[in-house]
Hints:
single chain, Aspartate Aminotransferase, domain 2, alpha/beta, Aspartate Aminotransferase, domain 1, 4-stranded antiparallel sheet, globular
Amino acid sequence: xxxxxxxxxxxxxxxxxxxxxxxxxxxxxxxxxxxxxxxxxxxxxxxxxxxxxxxxxxxxxxxxxxxxxxxxxxxxxxxxxxxxxxxxxxxxxxxxxxxxxxxxxxxxxxxxxxxxxxxxxxxxxxxxxxxxxxxxxxxxxxxxxxxxxxxxxxxxxxxxxxxxxxxxxxxxxxxxxxxxxxxxxxxxxxxxxxxxxxxxxxxxxxxxxxxxxxxxxxxxxxxxxxxxxxxxxxxxxxxxxxxxxxxxxxxxxxxxxxxxxxxxxxxxxxxxxxxxxxxxxxxxxxxxxxxxxxxxxxxxxxxxxxxxxxxxxxxxxxxxxxxxxxxxxxxxxxxxxxxxxxxxxxxxxxxx
Length: 352
Ligand SMILES: Cc1ncc(COP(=O)(O)O)c(C=O)c1O
């Protein structure tokens, strides 16, 4: 459970400081979020006891409708879920794959969910000298007869590599012919101006796409994500979902996010600018920065950098325990310009 960034509350408690005193560069959330409409709806609902005094709808039908509309799909292809992490584990539980293929480094919970149901892992270790690029042929090679599920994180976390849609579609076709499901996790897709895989989900019976409200709307505390998949798969996942899995507030906040106009585009442009600034500044400090398509990037530095930065109440994502990486690998996600400048100043100081 430990291998995630963004554990500011714990770190602050250990250091005996207030969480607001820590500059958190360890989570890769949208620095502009949450959107203004969310604060308004939270203030409105928070002050009304009815929000809490009645059961919420058994299932977030209105949110599902809004999501389906946004994705240009019929409702039966879309399933809101209480966080995309929930979907990762639920898919493993429902399909109980014998073998699961994935690349490393990637998001830790695919392997954890697979192990929890006793699946055998087939891991493709991405090469540092190729900047951790995911190669279609190598991934397809991992899909052998007893592999019945593949996880692809696209854009990948923590590398920021994006496998183009046509290549990913070729992998999905290859897997379809082998009777293997492909789960494409698009938690970070909104930060990129790409279509992703939802538009082709109708063409493949073996394709599941995961989306999240956590990153782009900066709402990790709300727990909201979604699955796009063929209706028979959506039905299977829905059948095991308890009633009232989404509180009233979550449902309202989700709909409010989808009503926001221009927020995603504005965030994308902002993140692109800060990413260019911060990645260049880290290069200028003399560190190796790996290319990334999104607003976070991997870099290499002395292995005590995280501790030294923490003395200045700056938290970065130490990636040393992620399979395929090791000591000295870190991930950074920009915040606002002032914070980014502060980080670079402190980095210069501690690296001397
Ligand atoms: C790639 C990826 N997928 C899924 C998740 C889980 O997101 P959610 O908050 O929607 O469960 C994360 C969270 O860090 C992530 O990085």
